[in-house]
Amino acid sequence: MFRFAGLPDKDYKLVILVRNDLKMGKGKIAAQAGHASVNCALSIKKKDPKMFDNWTSCGQAKVVLRVGSERELFEFKAIADAQGINNSIICDGGRTQIEPGTYTCIGIGPEECSVLDKITGELKML
Question: What's the whole-model pTM score?
């Protein structure tokens, strides 16, 4: 693959896992995914500015995938934590469609695509 000078030699992305069992509306899903994306971006910018720069220079790729339960969210969080991968789990305030304190999604990354694919590569798109 040809790359312009100054671009990283690898691809980077942020993966957002959304609970499919909650049956949230499209707008609610978009808002929750937005929370995860912003939290992860702000966190990685502070912890690892080079990773943030790599991700932003590659177009800030985001992929939204589905999981079936709260338990699955926390299983993926445990994997990310064990591998030292930036992540942010989102707990809803309960002002609209779902009960307060409901965990809706998790953002994982940004990180090299190859690293995240080993963790989430078998999941389906939302």
Answer: 0.92
Per residue in 49-74, pLDDT tens?
A: 999 999 999 899 999 999 999 999 99
How buried is 60 (Cβ within 10 angstroms: 0-12 exposed, 13-18 middle, 19+ buried)?
A: middle
3-state secondary structure the chain: CCCCCCCCCCCEEEEEEEECCCCCCHHHHHHHHHHHHHHHHHHHHHHCHHHHHHHHHCCCCEEEEEECCHHHHHHHHHHHHHCCCCEEEEECCCCCCCCCCCEEEEEEEEEEHHHHHHHHCCCCEC
**Tokens for 121?**
């590569």
Cα–Cα distance, 21 to 80 (Å, whole number): 22
